[in-house]
User: Which sequence fits this backbone?
């Protein structure tokens, strides 16, 4: 009975601390918060003005004395203080809406972050009132969230393509056998699109526009029905507003570089995978997670390049958060079985 009441009020939470967005999962419930990883602050005083969705709206539109930053960039913590403020803000936001006890918090972090960065993340969560803090590498959390049976003695490959990083890991017996991280993912795709418009059409478009184009007509493999979109921007030469008609075929050209880099890191990881485990991958293939994996035709392209089966996880954007949630549930099992063994 006590255990039941405890879990009812405990608010234990899992957090996907992503470079593009932060997701919070509450144990026994679901994902309760999903906001961009953006902090807006006064330039001189560093006073925080807004965090999350409100701050994202300010990106690129801020007056001179306000800056809106992404505290986690390229899979590392670019601004410690802003990261801490953001973690504290999101934990409190979720926590205050609910009840009572200090929660246990599981945080999915990019596997490339340093010990110092890990400590900073842990301390921020503790300061926000966490009773216990566990850090889990994003590829591990993504694999759990994608439903990969990570404890089995058979290898699986997860490729998690987020905003700032692509993380590739081969997992077997609950551990990462080979893991690689690359600073090329969804953000870099946006950047390539910006460059393409500038070079080919002298058109200046902002980050938000390039992301919208990517999501609406982005493609990396021929589509059954190709797509078209009118894109508005500013002419680099005349300075006047201009519209360009963009197609999904052209998007494949625009996205060549980042996609090539992602294929290369996957191939390098495969090359370093021990033969026995590589053999497992022939059957089990590659599972894709993260928002960047939603680009049209990626499974088909990767299957062609690696000659392995490639599948998209269910709801790729929430894999890491759901993985941290599943890890929370596991924590209880571990504790219960420890007690039973006493
Ligand atoms: N339908 C879509 N097609 C293509 N890209 C998409 C789509 N939906 C989201 N994205 C991209 O996914 C990226 C964000 O993915 P996600 O939220 O998984 O990243 P993150 O976990 O915050 O980042 P990281 O894993 O690098 O820490 C963004 O670049 C976004 O543009």
Assistant:
């Amino acid at each position: 009975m006590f255990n039941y009441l405890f879990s009812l009020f405990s608010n234990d939470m899992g957090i996907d601390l992503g470079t593009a967005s932060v997701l919070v999962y509450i144990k026994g419930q679901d994902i309760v918060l999903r906001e961009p990883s953006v902090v807006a602050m006064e330039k001189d005083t560093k006073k925080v003005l807004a965090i999350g969705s409100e701050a994202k709206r300010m990106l690129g539109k801020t007056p001179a004395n306000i800056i809106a930053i992404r505290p986690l960039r390229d899979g590392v913590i670019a601004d410690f203080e802003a990261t801490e403020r953001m973690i504290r803000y999101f934990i409190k936001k979720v926590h205050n809406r609910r009840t009572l006890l200090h929660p246990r918090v599981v945080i999915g972090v990019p596997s490339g972050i340093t010990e110092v960065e890990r400590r900073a993340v842990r301390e921020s969560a503790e300061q926000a009132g966490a009773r216990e803090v566990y850090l889990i590498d994003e590829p591990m959390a993504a694999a759990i969230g994608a439903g990969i049976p990570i404890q089995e003695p058979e290898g699986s490959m997860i490729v998690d393509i987020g905003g700032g990083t692509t993380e590739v890991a081969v997992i077997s017996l609950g551990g990462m056998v080979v893991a690689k991280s690359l600073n090329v993912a969804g953000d870099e795709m946006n950047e390539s699109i910006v460059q393409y418009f500038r070079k080919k059409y002298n058109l200046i478009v902002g980050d938000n526009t390039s992301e919208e184009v990517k999501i609406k007509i982005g493609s990396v493999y021929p589509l059954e029905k190709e797509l078209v979109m009118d894109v508005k921007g500013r002419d680099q030469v005349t300075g006047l507003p201009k519209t360009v008609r963009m197609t999904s075929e052209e998007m494949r050209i625009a996205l060549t570089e980042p996609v090539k880099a992602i294929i290369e890191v996957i191939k390098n990881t495969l090359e370093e995978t021990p033969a026995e485990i590589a053999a497992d991958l022939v059957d089990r293939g590659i599972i894709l997670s993260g928002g960047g994996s939603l680009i049209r035709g990626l499974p088909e392209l990767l299957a062609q390049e690696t000659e392995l089966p490639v599948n998209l996880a269910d709801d790729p954007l929430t894999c890491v958060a759901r993985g941290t949630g599943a890890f929370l549930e596991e924590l209880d099992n571990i504790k219960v079985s420890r007690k039973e063994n006493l």
User: Anything to note?
Assistant: Residues 2-141+319-341 form a domain with the Nucleotidyltransferase; domain 5 fold (CATH 3.30.420.40).
